[in-house]
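Customer escalation, tier 2.

The customer says the design service returned an amino acid string that "doesn't look like it belongs to this structure." They asked us to rerun it and document both sides in this ticket. The original structure tokens are below, unchanged.
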């Protein structure tokens, strides 16, 4: 069950630097937690809606949500299995190969992944006979990892867990934290865990969606309750520094609509030379205005425009008697559907590859979710791609839809109709 966290009533202070939060980044109204897919028997019960009001800190520029929803409840019935995305599996495979080569990992190394999900990434190290351990807060997916032979423990990560793991398994040579740093309420304690667990020569890599892409691509649908922090490179670098970690490299990735992979080591270790990429990206962000408050205060206007364009398309399609079906029912789709007020009157149903979601309904908007086969049966005029970050992969999977002349629709940054 979802409960309001104890911190909800506390004054809003920045989770990174404790400055008071006084500025709105964007206010998306209220939504239920985005992974709270409903069973048919829940449709006539009430749903709890929490604010989706993102604030920006005027001191460190961390864009953030207050923790309206308790982290324990989020992971209660967690439905996201990383292995359902082919391109994500390939991304993980390539990552393991690259890290093994760059940091000369071998049979004596120890790799730890935080938020290891169903073992989609660490299975590559298991195959390469490199010792590894996954730390994952959700039982549902941690059990799936154990089943495929990936050593995993069910824990939230932070300094305390890091100390326990170090005692039992020794220090880590590589720590990976992909798409998790933004999802932890206590970002300082989480990052501090790396400092506790890394070996003196150890390296931690973090991947997270880049705030610069969120802003220039108007990816407002990546804002949801479980996603507490929206990070620029400069802001994350400061948080790492405060916890005794020094960034030595950064790469831009295409994943999740534009992510960063940040490499850090213990401050003072100096094993890895600091690459030019660090200074270059800091300068790039400065040029984009990321060290000035007014840059952030312009975002709301772009989001409101995007909403109007999306609704315009859906209403027009409806008036022309065309059918619209959503492909994919990702958590972030629910921010868009709730913020725009799109229910089954505008999108008849959604299909998703994840069997957990079949026969369920989207939270708040109650759009039914079916297996992908339902597309071929319904032959809709438009296929509305909610997980737009997987657009290329999805269009390929759905090439059969050309048979009946279906068009693909991408809602972000502005509505696009593709043949
Ligand atoms: Zn701050």
């Amino acid at each position: 069950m979802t409960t309001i966290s104890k911190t909800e009533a506390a004054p809003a202070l920045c989770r990174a630097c404790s400055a008071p939060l006084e500025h709105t980044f964007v206010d998306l109204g209220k939504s239920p937690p985005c992974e709270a897919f409903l069973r048919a028997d829940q449709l006539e019960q009430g749903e709890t809606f929490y604010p989706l009001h993102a604030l920006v800190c005027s001191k460190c520029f961390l864009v953030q949500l207050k923790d309206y929803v308790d982290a324990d409840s989020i992971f209660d019935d967690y439905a996201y299995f990383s292995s359902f995305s082919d391109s994500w599996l390939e991304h993980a495979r390539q990552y393991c190969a690259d890290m093994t080569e760059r940091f000369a990992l071998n049979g004596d190394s120890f790799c730890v992944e935080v938020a290891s999900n169903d073992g989609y990434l660490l299975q590559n190290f298991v195959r390469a006979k490199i010792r590894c351990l996954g730390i994952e807060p959700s039982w549902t997916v941690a059990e799936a990892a154990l089943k495929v032979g990936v050593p995993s423990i069910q824990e939230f990560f932070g300094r305390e867990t890091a100390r326990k793991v170090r005692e039992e398994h020794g220090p880590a040579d590589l720590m990976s934290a992909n798409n998790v740093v933004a999802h932890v309420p206590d970002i300082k304690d989480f990052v501090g865990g790396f400092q506790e667990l890394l070996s003196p020569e150890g390296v931690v890599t973090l991947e997270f969606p880049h705030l610069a892409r969120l802003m220039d691509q108007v990816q407002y649908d990546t804002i949801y309750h479980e996603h507490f922090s929206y990070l620029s490179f400069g802001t994350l670098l400061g948080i790492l520094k405060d916890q005794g970690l020094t960034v030595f490299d950064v790469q831009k990735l295409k994943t999740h609509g534009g992510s960063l992979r940040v490499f850090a080591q213990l401050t003072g270790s100096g094993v890895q030379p600091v690459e030019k990429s660090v200074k270059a990206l800091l300068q790039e962000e400065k040029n984009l205005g990321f060290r000035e408050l007014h840059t952030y205060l312009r975002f709301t206007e772009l989001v409101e425009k995007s909403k109007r364009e999306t609704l315009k398309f859906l209403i027009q399609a409806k008036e022309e008697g065309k059918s619209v079906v959503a492909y994919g029912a990702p958590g972030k789709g629910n921010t868009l559907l709730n913020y725009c007020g799109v229910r089954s009157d505008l999108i008849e149903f959604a299909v998703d590859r994840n069997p957990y979601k079949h026969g369920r309904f989207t939270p708040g908007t109650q759009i039914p979710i079916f297996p992908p086969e339902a597309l071929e049966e319904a032959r809709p005029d438009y296929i509305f791609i909610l997980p737009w970050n997987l657009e290329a992969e999805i269009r390929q999977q759905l090439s059969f839809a050309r048979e009946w002349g279906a068009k693909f629709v991408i809602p972000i940054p502005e509505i696009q109709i593709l043949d």
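Tier 2 assessment: The sequence is consistent with the input. The pocket of zinc ion is lined by residues 14, 16-17, 19, 57, 59-60, 62 (CB under 6 Å). The mean pLDDT is 92. Sent an explanation to the customer and offered a walkthrough call.
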